[in-house]
Amino acid sequence: MVLVHVLGRGTSLSWIPSESVSGWLKGGFDLHLSHYDKPPADFLSGVEQVEQMRADDRFRFANVISGWADFTGARPTAGWSEESGLLMGSTTVRLALGSATFLGYSLPVLREIARPDDDTFVLTQTVGGRTGVPLPRTVRHPPFVRWQAPIVWTTLTLTLRRDGTTQVELVGASAFPRHWVYDETGALTAKSGVALLQDWLDHSFGPRTPWGNQDSTALVVAAETAIERRLSGDIMAGGRRRSVRPEVRTVPEGYLLTRQGEPGEHVFLVLDGVLDVLVDDELVAEVGPGAVVGERAVLGDGLRTATVRARTRARVGRVLGTDLDSSSLHELSLGHHREDEQSEATPGE
Question: What Å distances lie between residue 82 and 47, 104, 136, CA to CA?
Answer without folding.
Answer: 11, 21, 37
